[in-house]
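ok here's the first one, seq then struct tokens
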Amino acid sequence: MATLTNETLLLQQKRDKYVARGVSNGNKSLAAKGEGALLFDQDGRRFVDFAGAIGTMNVGHSHPKVVEALKKQAEAFVHPGFNVMMYASYIELAEKLCNLTPGSFDKKAIFLNSGAEAVENAVKIARKYTGRQAVVTFNRGFHGRTNLAMSMTSKVKPYKFGFGPFAPEVYQAPYPYSYQRPKDMLEDAYEDFIIEQFQDFFTSQVAPETVACVVMEPVQGEGGFIIPSKRFVQFVASFCKENGIVFVADEIQTGFARTGKYFAIEHFEVIPDLITVSKSLGAGVPISGVVGRAEMLDASNPGELGGTYAGSPLGCVAALAVLEIIESEKLNERAEHIGKTIEQAAKRWQEHYESIGDIRRLGAMAAIEFVKDSQSKLPDKEMAAKIAAYANEHGLLLLTAGIKGNIVRFLSPLVITDEQLNEGLEIIEQALESI
């Protein structure tokens, strides 16, 4: 590893002095250049990126098509404000996403800035449409850091502790976690049990006729890359339909080829009423959106939805480039190849290390759960943290996840080469050997 320059050391000191302590840094390097699945710091060190800015860089860093689109847009105009003067890219992106998202019904879209904004606006839309107030999310779910989104989020530390009071009328339903099911319970019986719990929830916690929407991550992200069964997701969707509840798929981390399809909900053969999107939609440029049934988005009056920077031209042109890249470079197919490669490596490691409990993935959305041992399945947060720390010290950007912090997650750009992917996996293998 290269020696840190005086400039880097000075900037690190300034970071500690001037940047809020509440902002975390898993890696203290300073980025200088990004290209595909690689990042370079200002001291010349090279990193293979398995973090992707927390699932934001599916098309990679500084993809030429995205860069060109941004340059062209910035030279024309940066931001007139869509509610002041419209621009074509917003309308074109709305059309593309309305045609791309599941469902043959009429759809409309609204664009915003962040994932949390998308979630909050989905709730606003559902409340306005139904005339109801209650919101249902799920245990271990993550939906953002603003007040309502934070209220909808499950993990207390670091996201909620000390930041209350929280928004009222938010309830968290059970979500399946097959690996951690009771030892004496078979998988089919566990599915029955979880579905029964979900039904009981609407008796013991909140009446369905008061619920505006159920917001579900088709694969839980921050919660640990937990993948529910198709049967459970379909049951939730049918329950919503029967009770006049808006079903919202939160695709902020799962969307845009991460799971091998444009949207993870497609794996479950379910058509949601609304879909929230962000992260990899903009390839690093802030943009988010809500896409869904036209009658739901039209329930709000002009001026009731939006924001100053909502759906900026830079975000819209970046998103249009992203959609072109996903199609032209066949990133849905690439995601499955990446995920399979990670899974095969993890299964080899599992034969040698009892601390590797569960290996799970949907497309390239892959994770390893670290445990004390295979019998107890007690979470081993320390092991996951050590693996991530070793990786970050040896040229691999790697993140952990999970309510108990014992999950190592894989979010590499989908344009990663096989050589880069294997290089990153070798670093993890070295970490396992050394620890």
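and now the second one, same deal
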Amino acid sequence: MEQNTPPNELEEKTKESHLMKVLGPMHIWALGVGIVLVGEFMGWNFTIAKGGSLGAIIACWVIGILYISLVMINTEMGSVMPEAGGQYTMAKYLLGPLASFNVGLMLVFEYVMLEAADALVVGQILQSLHPDVQALPYIILSLLFLTFLNYRGVYATLTLNFFITAVAFITIFVLLFGTKFYSPTESLLQINQLTNGLPYGWIGILAALQFGIWFYLGIEGTALAAEECRSTSRALPIGALVGFVTLLIGATITWFVCSGLVGAENLGESVYPLYDAALATGKPFVIVALFIGTILACLASANGCINDSSRAWFAMSRDTLIPGVFAVIHPKYRTPYRAILFLLPISIAFGFTGLLDQVITFSILSALLVYVLTAYMMFKFRAMYPIGTIERGYVAPWHPVPALVLFVLALATLGGMYLGYWSNMLAGFVFYFLASLWFTMHRSKFMDTKKFIEAGIGRWPRPKGY
């Protein structure tokens, strides 16, 4: 058992282990949108295969309701828990060690798997240039470069993410205006001829919800940067909420353009739907723009995933839920460099399985389990700390409606996932069950309970009814 540290020494060590506060709303937008935007360049189109063209857009908007609820909940709790870890930190204060261990692990795999999916798409789009192109060296070099950026500091990393995400987002509008959608006589869009409605009925919409998440998956990761914000109560709500609006606009345009340029059967199987839509226009400038946009979106997403997964892993290590070797911060750059370096080869390994929909499914499953627990945590948070008992940087309106919506839609999406990927779900549940057994039977013996609990003392009042 690790020796308990005296309170004064613990306070000093806690200060030393804190990350630098350098981020503003722009960086939070770049983190949230940067991770998610790749979902508009790939992955979302599997909703077409599951629910048809109409099922896809319905899934997009229904899942949009899920995510606006999630963003509001995360922003309220995250604004008063300014520590790296996001939903892990929420679980730490509200649910205890075993639940927070699972939430942290789920967050890590959500982003590691998403990073792997990014690597898969980069490889396949490079190979589309010529069959002799070897994608592996480019992918490894890209991920090594992004890892190096994260190693050197979060400010430069997310500043770069802002610019490459903005350029990738603009290319969606290049494609939109390249179709001349505004001219009935010159428009290239053929929505009526290429869409297929609801071929599987309402059950298809339920099945499509799983991949509708890909339009927004990762926006909740903005809460993971709470500790590094100059003003958490300002940067987190502005960056996250503006980011969600950005994604909702981009998602709707993406469905509209792709459905009007690529037939539903081909669209439902495409690895890079926006690029395929650009090819369908036959315009070289649009094709080049979307090629660049797809690559940049993948890089921005991978960059954000490295940031978020490492913060969750670092936070778990700092709280002694996993070995403390990953809690070390670089003395010069003030980054959790060991966590960053440790997760890189894991992501690369999953990326080169070549199973894009399987990798996406495990990422989505991990995220949905976090969402269900987040909805529960919101009820517990409001019960423990009613309005007025603790200072909040943001208050989610209409409570408990957002938490109920999040809970119901997350469960519905899990039900839809079961229809096509029940074996993947079973494997995921078995993995997290075995991880829980490992923690309960082995790792909990080495946990420093005092360090885990006292990190928040001095900032938190006693809960109601304590």
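notes on #2: DSSP finds 18 helices and no strands in the chain. Residues 21-454 form a domain with the Amino acid/polyamine transporter I fold (CATH 1.20.1740.10).
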